[in-house]
């Protein structure tokens, strides 16, 4: 994390992943106003650090040599933090989150949690003193915000320097962990790993998932192994501080919660611009007090994402049911266009993960001489006994012809996540194309 002058002025912090220290010039150009007092990092190995960078352990040994003072700031205009978007749809952009944005999101999150406990007929303070593991990176909006929110709830958090599945499982048992906030890439590992049987998970009550849709097959697999656990999904993005749809009791497994208090939403047909009704897919747009001020020094990008009326254009294709539950289908930019028809990678990934011999997968679009684009699957299998023909047969029995894997199947050892623990859509081969299959 880069520590700026936030502690003595009204400047926001600049959270970064340690791997981006060598790209600091990029962020310096993005923020010419940045006054850096100290760069402090949490590291997992004793490699030499760049000049001007301090290890967190060394910082703890220092005695404080300054006094805190009152700071005047505008809640709605001044920034509290400037996280960078994950860059899944282009270069990372600085997301301007104000004090008002973060405070509003925190209030909405706590309201939703209190409502859930009230529906159970239990006092909210029952969570005080319980344990959670802070697995997610603190430079990412989801990791940073949930750390603050759980602290407000009185939940003790055990910080991790680096994620390792067995270490996480061991600490769940050791600290009697009841609540986890994770992302699909980690939950997928839990669902299929034999390590899960090695540790006592009886203390674990709830897993909350965010940052990307969680496969229904993964949910079913994990519930088979941990039948008493609640797995809930929420929806959000960095541009809305954390989220706008939070999980509720008794929501369907593949739903991503309901719209929270003080927020407005609409689902819009991308071709006609008209609002969609229940069960009609369109692009989600959201409005409310948690929406970012804009992108730092990027007015054109801001105009593309925030319309004149303040609606955040998410770029996500969704639908909602008559009960108000939201279902995320795909990012509009990730859709594969086959002969004019649209194919959602997430739908195919869910089908492939239903095969008992598959551990993980990622579907991308590749160029096709005849069809324009074609779906290609990168697959992690349990053993070499699963062949391409097996997977083609399994998928073809379950999807329409234009959704079949005509771009081919490639077996890989792992599906690498990006630094934010979202499954990476970047293939190991870079740009690829294919002919007729």
UniProtKB/TrEMBL annotation:
Keyword Magnesium: no
Record-annotated membrane-spanning stretches: none
A cellular-component GO term for this protein: peroxisome
Sorted UniProt keywords: Peroxisome
Domain AMP-binding enzyme C-terminal: 347-416
Subcellular location: Peroxisome
Domain AMP-dependent synthetase/ligase: 71-295
UniProt xrefs under SUPFAM superfamilies: Acetyl-CoA synthetase-like (SSF56801)
One GO molecular-function entry: CoA-ligase activity
Entry coiled-coil feature ranges: none
PANTHER family referenced in this protein's UniProt entry, alphabetically: ACYL-COA SYNTHETASE 7, LONG-CHAIN-FATTY-ACID--COA LIGASE
Protein name: Uncharacterized protein
Species whose genome carries this gene: Mesorhabditis spiculigera
């Amino acid at each position: 994390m880069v520590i700026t002058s936030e502690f003595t002025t009204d400047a926001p912090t600049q959270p970064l992943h340690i791997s981006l220290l060598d790209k600091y010039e990029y962020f310096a150009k993005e923020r010419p106003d940045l006054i850096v007092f100290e760069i402090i990092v949490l590291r997992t190995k004793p490699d030499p650090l760049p000049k001007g960078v301090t290890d967190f352990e060394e910082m703890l040994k220092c005695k404080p040599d300054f006094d805190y003072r009152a700071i005047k700031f505008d809640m709605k205009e001044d920034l509290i933090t400037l996280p960078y978007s994950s860059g899944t749809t282009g270069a990372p952009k600085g997301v301007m989150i104000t004090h008002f944005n973060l405070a509003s999101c925190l209030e909405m999150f706590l309201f939703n949690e209190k409502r859930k406990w009230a529906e159970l007929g239990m006092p909210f303070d029952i969570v005080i003193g319980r344990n959670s593991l802070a697995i997610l990176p603190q430079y990412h909006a989801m990791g940073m915000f949930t750390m603050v929110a759980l602290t407000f709830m009185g939940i003790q958090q055990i910080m991790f320097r680096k994620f390792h599945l067995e270490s996480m499982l061991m600490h769940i048992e050791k600290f009697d962990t009841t609540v986890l906030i994770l992302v699909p890439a980690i939950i997928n590992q839990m669902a299929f790993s034999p390590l899960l049987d090695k540790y006592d998970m009886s203390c674990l009550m709830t897993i909350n998932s965010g940052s990307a849709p969680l496969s229904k097959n993964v949910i079913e697999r994990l519930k088979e192994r941990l039948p008493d656990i609640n797995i809930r999904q929420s929806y959000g993005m960095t541009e809305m501080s954390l989220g706008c749809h939070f999980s509720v009791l008794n929501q369907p497994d593949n739903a991503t919660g309901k719209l929270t208090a003080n927020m407005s939403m609409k689902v819009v047909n991308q071709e006609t611009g008209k609002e969609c009704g229940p069960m009609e897919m369109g692009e989600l747009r959201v409005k409310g007090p948690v929406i970012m001020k804009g992108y730092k020094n990027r007015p054109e990008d801001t105009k593309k994402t925030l319309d004149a009326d303040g609606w955040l254009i998410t770029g996500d294709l969704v639908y909602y049911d008559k009960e108000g539950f939201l279902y995320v289908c795909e990012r509009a930019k990730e859709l594969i266009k086959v002969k004019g028809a649209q194919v959602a990678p997430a739908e195919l990934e869910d089908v492939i993960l239903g095969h008992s011999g598959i551990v993980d997968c990622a579907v991308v679009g590749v160029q096709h001489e005849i069809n324009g684009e074609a779906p290609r699957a990168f697959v992690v299998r349990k053993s070499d006994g699963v062949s391409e023909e097996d997977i083609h047969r399994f998928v073809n029995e379950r999807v329409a012809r234009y959704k079949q894997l005509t771009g081919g199947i490639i077996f890989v050892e792992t599906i690498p996540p990006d630094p934010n623990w979202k499954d990476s859509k970047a293939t190991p081969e870079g740009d690829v194309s294919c002919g007729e299959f």
